[in-house]
C-alpha cells in the first residue's frame, strides 16, 4: 500500500496544515515530535548546508477513521513503511516525515545517522538538487508537489504480469515501486557525497531477511502473483544493497552476512530461471549507476525497463512509454 493512498485518510481532520508546518495542532492520535529530534535535524541541516526545516509527525494505529482505513494502515506498516517522507504535506521550506508510533527503532545512532537523513534527502533532492519528482502516470494532481517538477512514467492503461500471472491493479503500484527505488538511489548518492557512510552496514544488518510474501494473507485473490512480485523486488533490493556496500566499504563490507542474505533471497526466488545470474546482472547495473543521471527522467525509465526485464516483470500495453 503506497503512502500516498493512506496518508490523506489517516491525517483527515487531525489539524495538519497544507501551507506550512510552523505549527502542528496536536489532536487525538497525531503528535509533533520534532523537538525530540531537534539536535539530529540541526546536524542534518548543517551537514547538507541547507536551511530547509523538518517536521517529524507521529501517528498511531488509532489514526484510521474506519475499518477500511485501518486495513490499509496494517498493510502499510506490514510492508515496513513505518517512517517515510511525504511530499504532499511538505512545502519548499519544510520537509515533513511521518513516523508510526510503534516504529521499532534499531538504535539511536542508526536512526540519527542513516534513517532520518535518508528521509530528509528525499525532500532535499527535489528542492536543493533539482531532481524531478517521478510519479506513475494517472497520479491525481493533488499528489504533485508544488515545489518541484513532476514527471509521470508508464502507460495510462496496461497490465503487469509476473511470469504468466496477472498482478491485479498492479500498474500504478509497479511504477511507484520503481520510481521510489530510483529516488532511494538518489538519496544514497547525496548522503554518501556528504559523508554519510557511518552506520550504513548497521542499517543493512538490521533489515530482516524474511519472505515478503508472508505480509499478505493467502486468501486474497491474487496472492500467488503478489508473492512472486514481492519476492522479485526483494532480489532486486538485495542486489542493489550489495552494490552500495561494496562501493562504500570494499573488502571491509560485511561479506559473510551479505552472502547469507543473498542465499536467502535466491532461495525464495527458486521459480526465477537463472536467478543467480540475474542477481549478478542487477548488481553490476547498480554499480555503474551515477545517481546524477536520474535527473533525466528517461534514465529512470531505462532503469525500470532493464531491471523489470531481468526479473520477468512484464508491462503489457499498447502504448509506448
Describe the structure.
The chain has 321 residues and is of the alpha/beta class. It has 2 domains: 1-108, no CATH class; 129-321, no CATH class. 46% of the residues lie in helices and 12% in strands. The chain contains 10 helices and 9 strands. The protein has helices at 3-10, 38-48, 67-78, 108-127, 171-193, 200-206, 223-249, 255-267, 275-288, 297-310; strands at 30-32, 53-59, 83-85, 94-100, 133-136, 150-153, 159-162, 165-167, 313-316. The strands form 3 sheets. Strands 1-2-4-3 form a 4-stranded mixed beta sheet, with helices on one face. A hairpin with an 8-residue loop joins β3 (83-85) and β4. α1 packs across α3 (67-78) and α7 runs antiparallel to α8 (255-267). It is globular. The model is unreliable at 1-28 (pLDDT under 50).
Could you outline the blueprint of secondary structure elements for this entry?
Blueprint: H1 3-10, E1 30-32, H2 38-48, E2 53-59, H3 67-78, E3 83-85, E4 94-100, H4 108-127, E5 133-136, E6 150-153, E7 159-162, E8 165-167, H5 171-193, H6 200-206, H7 223-249, H8 255-267, H9 275-288, H10 297-310, E9 313-316
